[in-house]
Amino acid sequence: MAGEESKKLKLYSDWLSSCAGRVRIGLNLKGLEYEYVPVNLLKEEQQTPEFLKLNPVGFVPVLVDGDVVLADSFAILMYLEEKFPQHSLLPKDLHGRGINYQKFMKEKLGPNADVAWARDQIRRGFAALEKLLKDYSGKYATGDEVFLADLFLAPQIDGAIRIFKVDMDEFPLLARIFKAYLELPAFRDAMPGRQPDTPAEHRD
Fold first, then answer.
1. pTM of this prediction?
2. pLDDT at 176
3. Which of 55, 81, 151, 186 is packed most tightly, with the most Cβ within 10 A?
């Protein structure tokens, strides 16, 4: 399904990064082949001179498409949406797009965050999401098709379970949606447990 253009794509990613995870899902949904370049955040490889030339901020993900270098997951996903229109990440109606553009939760809860504090923040965010999505959700977050909001939500839920051991029984809507994500190869193959740089003890 991928054309010659997509073979140029290169994604700098860490297996556990939720920001990189949403880009991996987007690439998979659009059927785009890409080279996975692991960046070990725990070893601070994102601070090497080579990586800082790509992204001076020192974060993953970074997407390289020929001469184009993009950092920030949202910017990358919007670029992919414009250049590769197959499997649109946004609904056609304006209201649906607006719902997908909303920022649901704070990011940057990494594996080094205080577990009790992070779990409390996640639970507050998930409680709000349950209320927000009850009027919009179908099989997925904003209906019966996968859109941008799902790409942001899936890695957040995976991280909450994988890193912070959040009990998803408190959040039945989110738990149901996450189960639906894992039925889709594009999502399942983008999860942290299935990446080239996933440590053996964390592989699914």
1. 0.91
2. 98
3. 151
